[in-house]
Amino acid sequence: MRRAVVIGSGPNGLSAAITLAREGLDVEVREAETVPGGSARSAELTLPGFVHDIGSAVYPFALASPFFSKLRLDLYGLEWVHPSAPLAHPLDDGTAVVLERNIGATGANLDAADVRAYSDLFSPIVENWDVLIPDLLRPVFHVPRRPVLLARFGFRALQPAAMLAKSAFKGLRARALFAGLAAHSILKLEQPLSSAFALMLGGAAHAVGWPFAGGGAQSITHALISILTGSGGRIATGARVNTLDELDSPQLTLCGISPKGLLRIAAKQLAGRPYADLLRRFKYGPGAFKMDWALREPIPWRAKDCLRAGTVHVGGTLEEIAASERTAYTGKAPARPFVLLAQPSLFDPSRAPAGRHTAWAYCHVPNGWPHSAQDVIEGQIERFAPGFRECILARSCLGPLDLEAQDENLVGGDVNCGSPTLGQFIFRPTWREYATPLRGVYLCSAATPPGGGVHGMCGYNAANVALRRLQRRPLL
């Protein structure tokens, strides 16, 4: 039987392992940490009984993923918890723009002049979601199923978000909503491709929602591991791979690690090769400063509609959000950061003791930034939720270096495992995509297409490239 080793047990590593195991390979996953899952893990970071997501927390692309859909994770104990509304964006006038599942209901939150424009922007994406998303989550270089549809999406997706927001919308509310969606890219909003994130995330909110994983992110990992072991694969935790030599020459090695990590374990094999230079030049984006809170009560938002939303974008106007994201590239932390906040316990009571709550948030700071953003993050929340600090029972703060220490793929705190600039998006991380010049060795982390997000498609795509080279039939 042919052997395969997968390095890393995040969603992409586990997806690669499942794909290989289902094709009859003897598959072992090696995980350096004692708890599997990468950034899909949960723990009591603050107080006993308060369950916090260590990395990711909200999962639109897990529901959108063609691979996860085939796996039927719900049959393995995973429950998706949908908030009443995917997203709210509070403003200084005491109201909030609420992104509802329904496009028309969302339009009711906007200025009258922008209702039609919002529908024109997102309706084609939502109406064609089931056709569009498989193409968007495949390798960059492929024959699209609907080339005209993909080209129309690409025309807008390539634009800088600040430019598209201003050209598409007249009012502050729609522009702010679009800016918050685009800021997930961790690009400057003046950079090309920042609109792609707004369009995909907004489209996902309407098409499938922005759910939480019931009980915490670890539930996703547990479901994937159940599928893997049921397919004959196995996982070893606390099993760091220091060099490729120690793997005893499997036919396939799939690396769910960053380019930096690949350079570390394959230093001898890649010495003097141009591919090593390409990996060294791989660009990482700004880092994240992440906070978790155990709360006495729900966050006291001035705009009560925020209590209906699982995710809250805290940052004000388009101009403020754009300034915050630019600042993260200057070596300084923004004084008024754009804060991505999730409040899972409002919809999943298993996250906290009865009557208590949790919240999860982060802002973008310079890569590897060694300082604290606690005060500015909590200050921004207080701006839209006066009295927030009085609700805090305990807090956890994780800066960029802390995030990298708990998950080596988050280089300098970069949660996307690489900056999605235009050139790097096309060649992510190199023109080889998943393949390397080393026989049987492939990269399958979020550094490869289609990039960050819990969807498993990097691992699935990489495994299928590897299987085709072994003349094996792909899973889908």
SSE blueprint:
Blueprint lengths: L2 E5 L3 H12 L3 E5 L11 E2 L8 E2 L6 H5 L1 H6 L8 E2 L3 E6 L5 E4 L3 H5 L7 H13 L1 H8 L10 H11 L3 H8 L3 H11 L11 H14 L4 E2 L4 H13 L3 E3 L15 E4 L3 H7 L1 H4 L3 H7 L6 E9 L13 E6 L3 H10 L11 E4 L14 E9 L8 H11 L7 E7 L1 H7 L15 H5 L14 E3 L13 H13 L7
Parallel strand pairs: 1-2, 1-10, 2-9, 6-12, 10-16
Antiparallel strand pairs: 3-4, 5-8, 6-7, 11-14, 11-15, 12-13, 13-14
Structure description:
This protein is globular. The model has no long low-confidence stretch (mean pLDDT 95). Helix content is 36%, strand content 15%. A hairpin with a 5-residue loop joins β6 and β7 (96-99). α7 packs across α10 (194-207) and α9 packs parallel to α15. It has 476 residues and is α/β, with parallel strands linked by helices. The protein has a domain at 3-40 and 58-77 and 215-282 and 419-469: 3-Layer(bba) Sandwich (FAD/NAD(P)-binding domain), CATH 3.50.50.
